[in-house]
Design a protein that fits this description.
single chain; 300 residues; mainly alpha; 16 helices; 74% helix
Length: 300
Amino acid sequence: MSKKANKKPRIGTERMTLLDYIIFAVLLVLALMILIPFWNVIMISFATQKEYADNPFLMFPKEWTLDSYKALFADGTILSGYKNTIILLVIGLPLSLFLTTSMAYGLSRNKFPFKKIIFFLVLFTMIFNGGIVPLYLIMKSLHLTGTLWSVILAGSFSAFNMILMMNYFYTLPESLMESARLDGAGEWRILFSVVLPLATPIMATITLFYGVAYWNSWYDAMIFLRKADQLPLQNVLRNIIVTSTTNASNASSVDAAQASNFSMGMKMAAVFVTMVPIMCFFPMLQKHFAKGVLTGAIKT
């Protein structure tokens, strides 16, 4: 066989077929459907009230202004929301990872006592939910209502995330754990020294799931928290949007509408400053995300 016959085609040298062009066009349209509204949100936040009124779908404002951002940060509520959300992440994220990882590892071991019963009880919570009233009564009996601990504990464990991680642990060779046990390692040592270093994809995936959940958390905070200085970022954003909408609807003249701090500009500015941190967080874990979800979703 000649050398030319053995030579493999270089990546990227194959001709694109008609189907490839169609797929590329469809993906391009879908990408533009996502990017254009997002870009419009950013531009409105930097535009003036008059320019937005003339062209709500502006792509580049002629007069750039930071008035919406100045009004947004003027009273400090958005900074308080950032602080409370960061507290939720700093405390809640490690707690959620510890609870999920430890239970997933235990249920993935064949000799774990009462494994099937415990797994059934966990799975049962995914199908049937007690509702918010029993949860509120539990938090009240524990004297946690009105504190951030109620929000942290209410979202500290996800049965879906635990099942994903458990299925990933099933893919790890049992011989690794047996070798560690022969060397005298206990189960906690095996978990932290043997299993977790091999579970980077699923750990990154579950970290992303819990991180986004805590960042977007608002319902539990609305139920359990009462003081304005305790509200996380999403609740602050909700209050800003509701207040600005109410002020704009009650304005009886153009001057009064402008005096209400350009409600649409404030909305878009609030949306932008809320999205940016979590958008910066996602690319750091993106390379592990697909592998973690795919492996964790399939039990081998």
